[in-house]
Sequence to fold (223 residues):
Amino acid sequence: MNTRKAVRRLSGFAVVGALALTATACGPDDTSAQSNPSSSASSTSAPTGAATPSAASSAPADSGATGGAGGSDAKAGQTLKLGQAAHVPFSYGTTTKGKIALAVTSIEQGNPSDLASLKLGDQAKGKVPYYIRYSVTNEGDSDLAYASVGHMKGLLGDGTEAQDLMIIGSFDKCKSDELPQGFTKGKVAQGCAVALAPSASTKVASAEYWGEPFTLGQGITWK
Fold:
């Protein structure tokens, strides 16, 4: 199981987009993180949908028109409110397939000093981190243990893409990991993605999920 888990974990760290940065956080090394079957994403047996308070924007979870069990699948290009769930097919690697309800619950503005421990140097100069927090509910019959829900992109106020920051290792401000062991139907996990605004005067205003079957610019957007 450790070997299978390590291979999947490494594949989840592919850098998305030409503007993406990659950082190694201070803390436990990657081997130690892989040896622990529990994810930094918490798991429960029933959907919660609670939103995290946000300095940038936040909204209560909503299981309305596109949320809640049994809802219709989200459509490419659809825009939802923060906290509202999108029902989407999910695949990871070549064998893991299922269905999830995905909801961005908040987009929080961080502090440039948050990035100091990542030792990015001039790559992070003047940039402001934003934390895109989201919840994942397993709605299918497959166990999605150790899969990763990536492809979450921050968007600036004018709709252009914010820079991605892929974290390898531990970053307490925005913990995101593979889905936990025993992530079966009805289980819920929390995740986080980091987006960088180019300056303090520019905000990350929305988030887009563009994992399969969607494409970048034609995914599901929350704002």
